[in-house]
């Protein structure tokens, strides 16, 4: 099972994985840990990440970036409309009313949904993780901004499905950062102690998020979040772009905004300049060659001028900081540390603003770029059974109050109720009780639209079906479970009808309660992992608000549950029946559509793979041409006749030209065939070279082997006691074999020395090696025969020097390298001949 965390950033994404050694942010095929959130479409394939980023200008209309914030938004959404004008690619309204992206792909006009775009990006990140882990990746945790609404979250969830991922949790970016901070801290206050409050600030490319978290040993609770959803690095880039558009416009009479390519280039250069200014306070040049109409432009900028221009942006830094403190009801003194992450917090003035507000230095202990992804991977490790991690509980929150609205027969009109107030703990479930005779609809919505960075407060309609009256015609009690799940998404997760079976004429318990419709049984959902004291507190608070005293049963599926009767009404029996719920979610992709997108993604992955293979085949030809041409005039020169070399060089040149002309765009097989054709000429040369490299060593090894056996033979003949246990006939066999091998070797050496290197060798290295092995197989068993043990009187049994042949001669080939016998015999004929062996 995979344990992967993905930070889906507006500008760039990061992937972290959990391995035995810990959490690791992984690099893509460019050895870069950040992958640009960019997808380029071409006539034959898609490029995703760095390969797409390099096409931003050259393939501007079909290179898609900056789409993160279109998730879950209608085309008519004011945010989408405002963004539309500054994009190089085209946005369109899809039949569902949602935002689509129009590009040319495979020579066809195609509209893709935002879910598909993020799905493509996720496909790439998934591949990156798979390459690092060397196994398929399915389970993951993906981050989203903490201010995302349900529609945006559901849209990202759909994207994960399109990429074939199983998202265990959509985690808020700020919460992922808090987890990455807290899980390693050894010195957090104990559970009963006052928690440690830490502020996390993340200013990325598109948005600014602040959260306050309370830490105790083994747990974190998000107390409050605040944000400026449009304050990020790109706003600072825009300031510079505006400035230079005007400056260059005047100085060089250029209408930069009329040419998207020039504008995009200016954006790139301004971002670079902005980063330079973070490290440099001096004047910095802004030069772009051949910027527009073949004109080179130049200007200057410095930090103080830049700060002046960004005054309005910097003024927006404070509000969210103030807001989190107010919401959490904490003072600046209560804050233990302020941790900053996100690329834009590198702007010194942003950092200063934050530290000035809190009256303390900001901490940069976390990796500003990778903290979100690392937090995601940690969360995935916690959720995955495949990994053992330190226990750490996370209580997140609901950023906007959520209410339910319904038609109330009792009050003859609409009623509503805030089911989750702002900053309520999440994930969380509550059970509400309604009295109804027929199916009814619950309309969920964000009840504070003013603070919502999204134009539509509607969340969804939930139709509770199959509601029938009691047998006596009175209203049935319907229990509805509402929840904000682990992804931060609201739903009416289940509903059940409580059938009351009266056994006598006792008063029906709930009929007396006129306000039953509002009764909320705020019960901790057992399905959620949270059993924290905070939740118990909330439960207690909610119970206090509620007048309903009856114990609510957890809604186990199709299980008939006997309700514990209340003291006064002991004779009432109840059973529960699950009710179906029909959801009408805002901007939800239908199942069929989603399946189609999954299928299409699969097709595109396949197409990219085929195209990559085709390109690899082409590159292989090109590489071979360059490699061979180079070697033919260097290391291979001796191994090919002049005629052959000339004709081969010519062929290589022809192939090179072909690659730039007719061969520019051919099917994969053509390149494969071309390479085979070239290799047929190159291979023998290469082989001759290779042989000549290996041959001397092979001969040398054989020679050493022969020498070793001859030494033993001589020692035996000299009656060396080390070998006096050997059988004479065996020693004769060794001598004969060694002499034969010697003869064989000298013969081959002579023949080879007379042969031109441009011809195939008379003997191959592997045949020499085989000869060495053959000799060893005959001689080794004889010369390594152990000396029979001599029984010594007990007191004399001391460790003795090793006797007999030295260990290590067992495998024949390495025998030559083993320790020499102690008495070095006189040089033998073999030794005298050895120098010859180096001639080759
Ligand atoms: P978001 O969080 O909004 O989804 P993101 O995660 O892609 O976006 P980050 O990677 O955190 O964003 O930050 C990217 C931004 O940080 C860019 O605007 C980039 O120009 C800016 N940035 C990076 N380094 C520096 C620097 N040294 N000085 C100023 N800005 C920088
Ligand atoms: Mg980010």
TrEMBL record:
**Biased segments, Basic and acidic residues type:** 512-534, 788-799, 830-840
One Pfam family linked to the record: HSP70
What's one GO-annotated cellular component?
cytosol
PANTHER family, alphabetically?
HEAT SHOCK 70 KDA PROTEIN 4, HSC70CB, ISOFORM G-RELATED
Q: Which GO terms describe its molecular function?
A: ATP binding; ATP-dependent protein folding chaperone
Q: Under which name does UniProt file this protein? A: Heat shock 70 kDa protein 4
Name the Gene3D superfamilies for this protein: 1.20.1270.10, 3.30.30.30, 3.30.420.40, Actin, Chain A, domain 4, Substrate Binding Domain Of DNAk, Chain A, domain 1
What keywords tag this UniProt record?
Acetylation, ATP-binding, Cytoplasm, Methylation, Nucleotide-binding, Phosphoprotein, Stress response
List the residue ranges of the region (Disordered): 503-574, 785-840
Question: What SUPFAM superfamilies does the database record attribute to this sequence?
Answer: Actin-like ATPase domain (SSF53067), Heat shock protein 70kD (HSP70), C-terminal subdomain (SSF100934), Heat shock protein 70kD (HSP70), peptide-binding domain (SSF100920)
> Which positions carry the signal peptide feature in this UniProt record?
none
Record keyword Cytoplasm present: yes
Q: Which family does it belong to?
A: Belongs to the heat shock protein 70 family.
UniProt biased composition (Low complexity)? 563-574, 814-829
Q: How does it assemble?
A: Interacts with TJP1/ZO-1.
User: What InterPro entries does its record include?
Assistant: ATPase_NBD (IPR043129), Heat_shock_70_CS (IPR018181), HSP70_C_sf (IPR029048), HSP70_peptide-bd_sf (IPR029047), Hsp_70_fam (IPR013126), HSPA4_NBD (IPR042052)
Cellular localisation: Cytoplasm
């Amino acid at each position: 099972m995979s344990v992967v965390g993905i930070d889906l950033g507006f500008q760039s994404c990061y992937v972290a994985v959990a391995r035995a050694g810990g959490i690791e942010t992984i690099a893509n095929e460019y050895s870069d840990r950040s992958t640009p959130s960019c997808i380029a479409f071409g006539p034959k394939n898609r490029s995703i990440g760095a390969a797409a980023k390099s096409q931003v200008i050259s393939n501007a209309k079909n290179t898609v970036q900056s789409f993160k914030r279109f998730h879950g938004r209608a085309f008519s959404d004011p945010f989408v409309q405002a963004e539309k004008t500054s994009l190089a690619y085209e946005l369109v309204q899809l039949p569902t009313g949602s935002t689509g992206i129009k590009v040319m792909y495979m020579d066809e006009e195609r509209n893709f949904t935002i879910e598909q775009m993020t799905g493509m990006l996720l496909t790439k990140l998934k591949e990156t993780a798979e390459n690092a882990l060397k196994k398929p990746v399915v389970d993951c945790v993906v981050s989203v901004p903490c201010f995302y609404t349900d529609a945006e979250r559901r849209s990202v969830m759909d994207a994960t499905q399109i990429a074939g991922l199983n998202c265990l949790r959509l985690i808020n970016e700020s919460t992922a950062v808090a987890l990455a901070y807290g899980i390693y801290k050894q010195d957090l206050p104990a559970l009963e102690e006052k928690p440690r409050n830490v502020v996390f600030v993340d200013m990325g490319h598109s948005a600014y998020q602040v959260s306050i978290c309370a830490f105790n040993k083994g747990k974190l609770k998000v107390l409050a979040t605040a944000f400026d959803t449009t304050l990020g690095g790109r706003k600072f880039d825009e300031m510079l772009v505006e400035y230079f558009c005007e400056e260059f416009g005047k100085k060089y009479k250029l209408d930069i905004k009329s040419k998207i390519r020039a504008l995009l280039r200016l954006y790139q250069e301004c971002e670079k300049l902005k980063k330079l200014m973070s490290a440099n306070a001096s004047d910095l040049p802004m030069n772009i060659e051949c910027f527009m109409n073949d004109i080179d432009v130049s200007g200057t900028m410095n930090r103080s001028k830049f700060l002046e221009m960004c005054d309005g942006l910097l003024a927006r830094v404070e509000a969210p900081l103030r807001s989190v403190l107010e919401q959490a009801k904490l003072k600046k003194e209560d804050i233990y540390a302020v941790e900053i992450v996100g690329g834009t917090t590198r702007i010194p003035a942003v950092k200063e603003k934050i530290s000035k507000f809190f009256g303390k230095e900001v901490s940069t202990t976390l990796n500003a770029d990778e903290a979100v992804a690392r937090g995601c991977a940690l969360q995935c490790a916690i959720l995955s059974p495949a990994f053992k991690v330190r226990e750490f509980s996370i209580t997140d929150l609901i950023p906007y109050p959520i209410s339910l609205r319904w038609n109330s027969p009792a009050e003859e009109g609409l009623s509503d109720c805030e089911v989750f107030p702002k900053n309520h703990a999440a994930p969380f479930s509550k059970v509400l009780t309604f009295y109804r005779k027929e199916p009814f609809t619950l309309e969920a919505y964000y009840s504070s639209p003013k603070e919502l960075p999204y134009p539509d407060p509607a969340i969804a309609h939930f139709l509770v079906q199959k509601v029938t009256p009691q047998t006596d015609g009175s209203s049935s009690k319907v229990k509805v479970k509402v929840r904000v799940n682990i992804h931060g998404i609201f739903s009416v997760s289940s509903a059940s009808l409580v059938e009351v079976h009266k056994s006598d004429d006792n008063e029906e318990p709930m009929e007396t309660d006129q306000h039953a419709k509002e009764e909320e049984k705020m019960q901790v959902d057992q399905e959620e992992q949270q059993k924290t004291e905070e939740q118990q507190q909330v439960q207690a608070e909610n119970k206090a608000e509620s007048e309903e005293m009856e114990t609510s049963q957890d809604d186990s599926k199709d299980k008939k549950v006997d309700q514990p009767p209340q003291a006064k009404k002991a004779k009432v029996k109840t059973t529960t029946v699950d009710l179906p719920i029909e959801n009408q979610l805002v901007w939800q992709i239908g199942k069929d559509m989603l399946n189609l997108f999954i299928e299409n993604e699969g097709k595109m992955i396949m197409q990219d793979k085929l195209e990559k293979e085709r390109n690899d085949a082409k590159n292989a030809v090109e590489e071979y041409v360059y490699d061979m041409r180079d070697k033919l005039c260097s290391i291979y020169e001796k191994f090919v006749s002049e005629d052959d070399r000339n004709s081969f060089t010519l062929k290589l040149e022809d192939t090179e030209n072909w690659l730039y002309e007719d061969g520019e765009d051919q099917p994969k097989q053509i390149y494969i065939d071309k390479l085979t054709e070239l290799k047929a000429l190159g291979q023998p040369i290469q082989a001759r070279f290779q042989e000549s490299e290996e041959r001397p060593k092979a001969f040398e090894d054989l020679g050493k082997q022969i020498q070793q056996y001859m030494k033993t033979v001589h020692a035996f003949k000299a009656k060396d006691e080390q070998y006096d246990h050997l059988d004479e006939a065996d020693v004769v066999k060794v001598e004969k074999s060694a002499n034969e091998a010697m003869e064989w070797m000298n013969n081959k050496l002579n023949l080879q020395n007379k042969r031109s290197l441009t011809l195939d060798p008379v003997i191959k290295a592997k045949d020499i090696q085989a000869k060495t092995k053959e000799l060893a197989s005959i001689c080794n068993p004889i010369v390594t025969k152990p000396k029979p043990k001599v029984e010594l009187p007990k007191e004399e049994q001391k460790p003795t020097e090793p006797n007999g042949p030295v260990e290590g001669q067992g495998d024949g080939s390495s025998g030559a390298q083993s320790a020499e016998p102690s008495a070095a015999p006189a040089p033998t004929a073999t030794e005298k001949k050895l120098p010859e062996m180096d001639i080759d």
